[in-house]
Amino acid sequence: MRKYLLPKQGKFYKANLHLHTNVSDGGSDPETFKKVYMSKGYSILAYSDHERLVSHKELTDENFLALTAVELGIHDLNCPHNYPLVCHLGCIALDENIDTQLLYHREKYIAAPGWPREKLKVDESKPDFERVYSIDGINAMIEGAVKENFFVVYNHPAWSQESYPQYSNYNGMHAMEIMNALSNVKTGISEYNDRVYDDMLRLGKRIYCIAADDSHTTQEARARGCAGAWTMIKAEQLDYPTIAKALKDGNFYSSEGPEIKELYYENGAIHVETSPADKILFTTWPARGKAFLREWGGELITSAEYVPHEVSEYVRITIIDEYGKKAYSNAYFLDELKK
Questions:
Q1: What are the tens digits of pLDDT across the range 145-179?
Q2: Using CB atoms within 10 A of its CB, is residue 81 exposed (0-12), middle (13-18) or buried (19+)?
Q3: What are the boundaries of each domain within the chain?
Q4: What is the spatial distance between Cα 320 and Cα 330, in angstroms, rounded to a whole number?
Q5: What is the end-to-end Cα distance of the chain in Å, rounded?
Q6: What's the burial of 275, exposed, middle or buried (CB within 10 Å: 0-12/13-18/19+)?
C-alpha cells in the first residue's frame, strides 16, 4: 500500500518561519515584510520577533497567513570571551488566538528597541519565568513553550556556537533549523546543519527540520538574507488551524531552490519526484544510504527510488540542483513507515 510522506492532496505554500521586524531589532515593519515576501511567492510568514510575541492577524487575508511567533534566547553568562554560547528557540503559536507573552519575565529578556513594554499583553496571573543557560534550564524553556501550545524550533545552532554536548541533551522540541540564510551569508558561519540533524536523529529525537531566512529587513541585498531559504508546507487550505496542523504533522520540506514534488513509501521503497537535480541523496542510519547522481554531462534527474537497509532506523532525502542549491526532507522512521 502506498503511504504518502507528503500529502497527495493539497497545495504547497511557501513560508518563512523566522524573521524580525521593527517590533524588535528588524529594519522593516510587518506590513512591508508581507508585501515583499508575497512578491517573492510566499504565502506564510511567522513574525518571530525577539522576546516580543505580537499577533499580526490583521495582515491575514485569502492569499496570506500571518503566524504569531516569538524567538526566545538565553546566553551563557559564564562564558569567558565576548561571544558566549546562546540558545535561541523559535516558538510558533499553534492557536491563532494566543497573544500573551511566552515564558515572560517583567524585568529581564526584553529585546530593544522595538515596541515599548506597555504595549505587550501579559498574563498577570503567571509568575516571572527565570531562564537559566543550562541543559535543565533550556529543557524547561522547551517544555514550557510546548505546554503553552507552541511549535518549538531549535534555531541556528552554528551561529549560536553550540555543539554536541549542548544540543544532544535538548529534548522535546518539534524541529530544528537545517538551513538559516542570514547566518550563511553574513557571519562566515555555515548554517547547513545536516550533521546536527543527524546527531539528533541518531539519539532517537524524532524531530523535523525547517529552513528560514532569519531576515531583519526587506532590502534586496543578498547579504541581508531576504528570501534565501524557506519551508514548503503542504495543506488543503490557507488558514491558521490547517497550517498549524500541517506543521505538527510534519507535512513540509525545506529548500533554498529545489522542489520535492511527490514523496511516498510503497513496497519497502521510498520514491521521490523532484525538480531537475544533479544529486538525490538518501541518508540513513546505522546503515549507509545511497546517492543518485546524473551521469557526467547527462540530463538532470527528476526522480529516485531507494529501498532502505533492514537495519536502518530512519531515512531523509537531500536534493542538490546543478547550482549546488539544496532541499531537505524531514526524516522518516522506518518503524512508523512499516505500520
A1: 999 999 999 999 999 999 999 999 999 999 999 99
A2: exposed
A3: 10-254, 257-339
A4: 15
A5: 11
A6: middle
